[in-house]
Amino acid sequence: MTDHLEVGRITKAHGLGGEVVVALTTNRLERVEPGAVLVAGDHTLEVESSRPHQDKHIVAFAGIEGREAADALRGTVLLAEALDDPDELWVHELVGAEVVELDGTARGRVDSVQANPAHDLLVLDSGALVPLTFVVDHDAGTVTIDPPAGLFDL
């Protein structure tokens, strides 16, 4: 199931009717729009309805009725297929990519992407951190950056 990405987690049941509280790990709200299908372990869940609730979403899934059924989903990781949006930078496409500067200087490979209040950071295998704001281009396996002088001297 490597083509599926984690998009959220069910944190708890909500009310008595079978709704659950979902903490999204994505900023793509279409993941909880009615009709969206999410993978939950070895089965799928179809969103019937959802609404924002504080920093999470209250979601009703088809076939989940009653608090007991909803509570059984507590802790379930929700997965979905990757979206095809060429204008977006996707974490799963960045990890493992080679990072090069505009002049071709290689800076290493992306180990992970770290959330940061100002700008998310590329964490390189060398330990260097590169704010995503310096990414100027990306394609399969390569991220091109235009960093300020001295960024790699820190």
Basic shape: elongated
What are the segments in which pLDDT stays under 50 over at least 5 consecutive residues?
A: none
Instruction: Give the number of helices.
Output: 2
Biggest β-sheet: count, sense, barrel? Answer: 6 strands, antiparallel
How many β-strand runs? Answer: 12
Distance between the termini: 39 Å
Roughly how much helix do the residues carry, as a percent range?
Answer: under 10%
Strand numbers in spatial order across the main sheet:
3-4-5-2-1-6
Q: Give the DSSP E fraction (strand runs of 2 or more residues).
A: over 45%
Describe this structure in words.
With 154 residues, the chain is mainly beta. It is 6% helix and 47% strand. The protein has two helices and twelve strands. It has helices at residues 67-71, 91-94, and strands at 4-14, 19-24, 37-40, 43-53, 56-61, 77-81, 98-101, 106-114, 121-124, 129-131, 135-139, 142-145. A six-stranded antiparallel beta sheet has the order 3-4-5-2-1-6. A hairpin with a 2-residue loop joins β4 and β5 (56-61). The longest helix has 5 residues, at 67-71. The radius of gyration is 19 Å and the shape is elongated. The relative contact order is 0.16. The mean pLDDT is 93.
